[in-house]
Amino acid sequence: MRVLGIETTCDETAAAIVELRPDGGGIVLADEILSQTAEHARFGGVVPEIAARAHIDHLDILITRALANAGATLADLDGVAAAAGPGLIGGVMVGLTMGKGLALASGKPFVAINHLEAHALTARLTDGLEFPYLLLLASGGHTQLIGVLGVGDYRRLGTTIDDAIGEAFDKVAKMLGLPYPGGPEVEKAADHGDPERFAFPRPMLRRPNADFSLSGLKTAVRLEIGRLPSLGQTEIADVCASFQAAVVDVVIDRVQMALRMFREKSGSPKGLVVAGGVAANTGIRAALRRFATQSGLRLVLPPPRLCTDNGAMIAWAGVERLRLGLFSPLDFAARPRWPLDPSAERVNNGKA
Ligand code: KG4
Ligand code: ZN
User: Residue 47 belongs to a domain with what CATH number?
Assistant: First the structure.
């Protein structure tokens, strides 16, 4: 089985082709991606209209290239999958319409994919991980802890009640005059800083749920910066190191709580999976590694290219759905909000 996957929910335009292996794993035959970071950088964040236009400009070229690199034509595919949300509605509609059009023209089944489900299932593409498992998804738009019990079967154990973790990194970077996206810049500066110089708060610590809150921490950082007589390299490094240390403590505490909730409701998870751009942070990765070892959990960290937004994860989610006979009607609507767990009522800052 071979599926084309299309991703346009945020600022990456991506198209990939993934093949199902006989042993149940997957092979990425082609994986094309174009990041729009440079186009949004001067605005300090993603501008939805610019993103949608850039998707229109590049998507057809990326799909053509993906097919060529996989040595395939549309006729060789078994289905077309496109991310239908959650995300920026203009961009989502570009990819979704393209996917439907290609499926219609080639007479192949169409699968509308939840972008969060694609992140959640990536560990099965890369590591063949079996259900059930615990997922920490931390990017610029999402911060969620999810029990992944099966295809289409998800329990949201925790979410952020305000900012996403990546968003907090980006905002702190902005306060310090560091470029966008801020996560990697804050991490770089933190390497030379003193994580104990500033005692920033650890919001939500030990609360009996697995939710996050980042806005109080962000405000504490802003106030501290305002109190500093000067903002030189040392101050920037110390603020970054102290901020990152607070985030690490919060992440580990929240994951620990989610693990407890998972075990109470669904038994032992087969692993802990980390996805999203924030999973690139070496401080967070190291702390999660220590935590997983202590908890006797297998830790799965997909390679960064498959942790951040990409087309292969959409194609793979298409494979997972198609092999269960789950496809979508051609009038499937784009969804700016689309929680993975319909029973989870609270909305993640309007983003999921
Ligand atoms: O998954 P992603 O590429 O895009 C979406 O947001 O969907 O995640 C990007 C986010 C940005 O907020 C970025 O600052 C953050 O991930 N990020 C990091 C690091 N690398 C990227 N945050 C902390 N440390 C990093 N090394
Ligand atoms: Zn994403």
Answer: 3.30.420.40
